[in-house]
Amino acid sequence: MPFRYIDQLKLNDAIVVETPDGWYTYRFPNLEYVKPSEIGVLLDVPQMPEMQTDDRYITLTACSPLGSLAERI
Length: 73
What we know:
- The chain is mainly beta.
- The chain contains no helices and 4 strands.
- It has strands at about 15-20, 20-25, 65, 70.
- Strands 1-2 form a two-stranded antiparallel sheet. A two-stranded antiparallel sheet has the order 3-4.
- The mean pLDDT is about 85.
């Protein structure tokens, strides 16, 4: 379960991803719990849906509580 401890991330924690093109470091901005139907959190910039950007963003999601369909973290 790759995101088992996602709820333990703290503001500005580094999230490092290795790809064939190189390493990318993201900073953790916030933690939000949503219903599974709230797909707006998957937009490029969830807090500003009208914003278009060429920047790189990462969105991490997991079940909350773990293994449940009740919410997404």
